[in-house]
Amino acid sequence: MINKVRPIDCRHFINGQYVDSDKGRTFDNINPATEEVIGVVAEGTQEEVDAAVQAAKRALKGPWCEFTPNERSNVLRRIGDIILERKEELAILEAMDTGKPYEMALEVDITRAAYNFHFFADYLTSLGTEAYQQDDQALHYAIRRPVGVVGMINPWNLPLLLLTWKMAPCLAAGNTAVMKPAEWTPMTATVLAEIIKEAGVPDGVVNLVHGFGPNAAGSALTEHPDVDAITFTGETKTGSAIMKAAAPTLKKLSYELGGKNPNIIFADADLDEVIDTTLKSSFMNQGEVCLCGSRIYVERPVYEAFLEKFVDRTKQLQVGDPFKEGTKVGAVISKEHYDRVQQYIGIAKEEGGTIVAGGGRPKGEQKGYYIEPTIVTGLTRDSRCVREEIFGPVVTVLPFDEEEDVIEQANDTHYGLGTTIWTNDLRRAHRVAHKVEAGIIWVNTWYLRDLRTPFGGLKQSGIGREGGMHSFEFYSELSNITIKL
Ligand code: NAD
Question: Whose C-alpha lies nearest to ligand 1, atom 30?
Answer without folding.
Answer: 234
